[in-house]
């Protein structure tokens, strides 16, 4: 796991400014959906995955530190989490969660294994 959960690992092949919307997202045990939104903001980079019918249309925010590899030829983002881990993640609601530091902390804690801030 990366020390900075909110930054792309140097080995991921991420290029700042690349448009990842619509790319397939692959968990360690198979496909989980497509990138709906992403941010390259320093210290707060992430992708939002639209899981489609797989988990009934849920949107999930994944910190950039979960990305292991980007494959531009196949337009795929590979992450180091299982489908079950992603399914159990806090749901993302664009209207409520964009710019919400509490949600940011909750998600960061979930993916890094830290207890939630109360």
UniProtKB/TrEMBL annotation:
InterPro entries: Bac_photo_RC_H_C, PRC-brl_dom, PRC_barrel-like_sf
Region: Disordered, residue numbers: 95-118
Taxonomic lineage from the root: Bacteria, Bacillati, Actinomycetota, Actinomycetes, Kitasatosporales
Gene3D superfamilies reported in the protein's UniProt record: Photosynthetic Reaction Center, subunit H, domain 2
Protein name according to UniProt: PRC-barrel domain-containing protein
Residues in PRC-barrel domain copies: 16-85
